[in-house]
Design brief:
Layout lengths: L22 H7 L7 H5 L4 E3 L3 E4 L8 E5 L4 E7 L5 E6 L5 E5 L3 E3 L9 E2 L34 H11 L2 E9 L1 H4 L5 H4 L12 H11 L12 H4 L16 H9 L1 E7 L4 H4 L2 H17 L3 E5 L8 H18 L3 E2 L1 H5 L32 H20 L2
Parallel strand pairs: 4-8, 9-10, 10-11, 11-12
Antiparallel strand pairs: 1-4, 1-7, 2-3, 4-5, 5-6
Helix pairs in contact: 10-11
């Protein structure tokens, strides 16, 4: 019998802390998520007979994405329609992809035919680095609120088939996204729409998820960490599950607000930032979740790199044909570019972050709330109705 259950209860304290993530991230990882404890305790469901080649899709014609050693423990996620391939991952999360069932010893208590059928193609980075020039992207030429939603409706319809909740959003990013000043007030009914009463309907639709704590939004989070199981909450996430996949599995959102860059500026080279963010967008789309990508506030001490990284964000939104919030442009006309005195965090409201009044909209957090709600309104009405 392969039936073994275990719970990862440590933060792998012996693993090196990478990318300069703050101590606050560690504190967040220890938040209790008792309702998800049973799922987090479920262990591996199969063992490899011997070394098994892992593919990006359920066919040997697809890219090879890894190899599992003999007797490797595997967690199963989905299967193909013929039930002869499964999508799974190693318990350490380092290898994830499609494998042939005939090469696995599967726990007798696990029924492969009961797994969700999926056509997911696992993200494969370019084998030869693509030289991209972002200098031609003018940040001011892209609207604050998207006018072209690209593939949003197609992604949403696929998400309904996968069981995503059309009334749920996910917040993915660092401390500027984790902050209780971002969207939380609209879930707590602590807001004043001022002249933007037309946003009441979209607030009513998504309000229950505005104040939900995200499993993929932490102080200091960078793109690489969002994809790394080391930084997942061990009380909510399955062994080997990244913060991103954990958030999507637990909350089943239809839309994800994704903003990275402020921390990556400090720790992630541009080409790696590009690759990581593309993988985040790819996995979001594969999960049937509409990614709403956002440019990020600048860093006054790193202004030119801020422009370059935001050019990367825009290029990815264009390449994947997904909605884009151009927060950079929305903040341009605000005092100090919508930044606090430290020159890198959004400025705080005069009253409440949910008060969309003229004096508050001269501050960073209320402005981000406004343009995010306006974008959600467009996506909801035009791609989800």
């Amino acid at each position: 019998m392969l039936k073994q259950h275990f719970l990862v209860i440590s933060l792998r304290k012996h693993a090196p802390m990478r990318l300069g993530l703050s101590v606050a991230l560690i504190a967040v990882l220890l938040l209790p998520f008792a309702s998800n404890l049973t799922e987090a305790q479920s262990g591996f469901q199969a063992l490899t007979h011997y070394a098994v080649t892992i593919y990006s899709g359920p066919d040997r014609a697809n890219h090879i994405v890894g190899v599992l050693a003999p007797e490797a423990k595997v967690i199963l996620e989905t299967r193909n329609a013929a039930a002869n391939w499964v999508l799974g991952r190693s318990t350490d999360g380092l290898v994830r992809g499609w494998m042939e069932i005939r090469f696995l010893d599967i726990d007798p208590d696990t029924s492969v035919v009961n797994l969700l059928v999926s056509n997911e193609i696992v993200f494969v980075p370019a084998e030869v680095p693509v030289v991209r020039t972002y200098d031609e992207i003018n940040l001011d030429q892209y609207p604050v609120i998207p006018t072209d939603l690209g593939r949003a409706r197609q992604i949403f319809e696929q998400g309904l088939i996968l069981g995503n909740d059309p009334g749920v959003i996910a917040k993915i990013g660092d401390c500027i996204t984790e902050s209780e000043r971002f969207l939380y007030p609209f879930g707590w009914n602590r807001y004043n729409l001022g002249s933007y009463t037309n946003l009441q309907a979209v607030i009513d639709h998504f309000s229950a998820s505005f104040s939900t704590n995200s499993l993929a939004a932490y102080d200091g989070l960078v793109t690489n960490a969002a994809l790394d199981p080391v930084f997942s909450n061990p009380l909510a996430c399955l062994p080997g599950e990244s913060p991103l996949r954990c958030e999507y599995r637990v909350h089943r959102p239809a839309v994800a607000i994704i903003m990275f860059g402020a921390q990556d500026l400090l720790f992630t080279p541009p080409d790696q930032f590009d690759r990581n963010l593309r993988q985040i967008v790819h996995e979001t789309i594969q999960a049937g979740i509409i990614p709403i990508l956002s440019t990020f506030p600048g860093n006054l001490a790193l202004w030119e790199p801020s422009i370059q990284y935001n050019q990367i964000v825009i290029q990815i939104a264009v390449d994947y044909q997904i909605p884009l919030i151009n927060l950079w442009r929305a903040l341009e006309t605000l005092p100090n570019y919508g930044l606090n005195d430290d020159g890198r965090h959004l400025s705080v409201p005069v009253t409440e972050a949910g008060h969309l009044t003229p004096e508050n909209l001269a501050r960073g957090y209320p402005m981000r709330n406004l343009v995010t709600l306006q974008t959600l309104d467009v996506v909801w009405r035009e791609a989800m109705y």
